[in-house]
Amino acid sequence: MLTVAFVMLAEVLIFVPSIARFREDYLLLRLEKAQIASLALLTTDEMMTPELEEELLANAQVFNVVLRRDEVRQLVLSSPIPAPIHATYDLRLVGPFGLIRDALLGLADPQNRVIRVIGDPVQQGGSLIEVTMESGPLRKAMLEYGLRVLVLSALISIVTAGMLFLAVRRLLVLPIRRVVRHMTAYAEAPEDARRVIAPTASVRELREAEEALQMMQTQLTTALKQKERLAQLGGAVAKISHDLRNILTVAQLFADRIGDSVDPVVARAAPKLVGSIRRAVSLCESTLTFGRAEEPPPQITRFPLRRLVEEIAEGEQLGEGDISCLIDVAPGMVIRADAEQFHRVLANLIRNARQAIDATGQPGTIEISAGEGEAEWWVRVGDTGPGLPPKAREHLFTAFQGGARKGGSGLGLAISAELIRGHGGRLDLLKSDGEGTEFMIRLPKSAGLAEEA
């Protein structure tokens, strides 16, 4: 329908000058026939009978003919004029816009009027020829011509619209339906890689859409498979953590008894062993909680930060081998946080730094520094390791995707970031390049609404 409308609009723009041209040809034909009739009279020496003159005028469809030759204006053929002359049209002086204007005015006037038409004779038969004629037959011929143009335009527009419809259906509609069928089939079984669309469209835009859909379906299928494997892994980890928690609980009971030993070395090591087992039990419980997408709210207390950092460094055996540890934390610095959760966060960061340096086989340094401002505490953990690979930086705090070492799950950083967010703070990667990696923990000093209440 749009094609028909546009073609008809184009035909209207063509029709206006064409109807003006048709009117001009019609008037020139009347002048030519009138000139032939007048020449027939001028070439004979006999008197023309009224019947012959009337026949010549009827054949030319005019009332009279005036011919100017040799500067002499002569009324060659004449007959009674039924009405006064309404308008005069000089075809020698009018331009294209004038012809269009006269044609439209003639179509709009339904009355049969007498008009005068002036033009140049053909074959240099004089300097001027002038006829008077009726406008009714001219208007009728113009209407018939316009009707033929309209019918032809309608046929052309219908054929064009049909061809365009078939072309659009072939090039656009059918490929779009194919894409819709692929999307519907893929939605029924997104895990089936065989249902991923294969781009075949010849239209560039549709081809790009199919390629984008193919990429999205491929990524979604891969993600679903990974989620399924992760769900199975999560179930296995939950079972292992549950059983391991029970085993560690028994070990904790025996470790408590070791604390009563009279051996000073054992008595000194027992609290650390008990603390390590207690944190292992807490880690198992946290893993089970993480599998349920839940994390217990932090139990905010005040505790000295340096003592916590030294305990973690001693547990990771920093300073005993090729890895040195620099602790730049004021002895009297106290922060407000959940001691157990903050211990897990720092332990994860320090352990990751130690493993990164160990992987190089070269000596290295781990630096832990801390400070405070008016609004927050900050803790920085840096190392001189090789830096994180680009893929690890891209999904650094995403569980099971941000692992920096082979075999790593990336769960530690994800849990650490989640625990810090639970304190209202944030864990950021400051830098990671060939000179090392630095993480920054920021904890706000302002209390949460629940704690204030």
From TrEMBL:
Q: Which residue ranges traverse the bilayer?
A: 145-168
Q: Which organism is it from?
A: Cereibacter changlensis JA139
Keywords carried by this UniProt record = ATP-binding, Kinase, Membrane, Nucleotide-binding, Phosphoprotein, Transferase, Transmembrane, Transmembrane helix, Two-component regulatory system
Checking Gene3D superfamilies in the record gives: 1.10.287.130, Histidine kinase-like ATPase, C-terminal domain
* Annotated SMART domains: HATPase_c, HisKA
Instruction: Write down the top EC class of this protein.
Output: transferase
Q: What is this protein called?
A: histidine kinase
Organism phylogeny: Bacteria, Pseudomonadati, Pseudomonadota, Alphaproteobacteria, Rhodobacterales
Q: Which EC number(s) does the record attach to this protein?
A: 2.7.13.3
Q: What GO terms are given for molecular function? A: ATP binding; phosphorelay sensor kinase activity
The cross-references to Pfam families, in alphabetical order and at most eight, read: HATPase_c (PF02518), HisKA (PF00512)
Domain named Histidine kinase: residues = 239-447
Q: Which reaction does it catalyse?
A: ATP + protein L-histidine = ADP + protein N-phospho-L-histidine
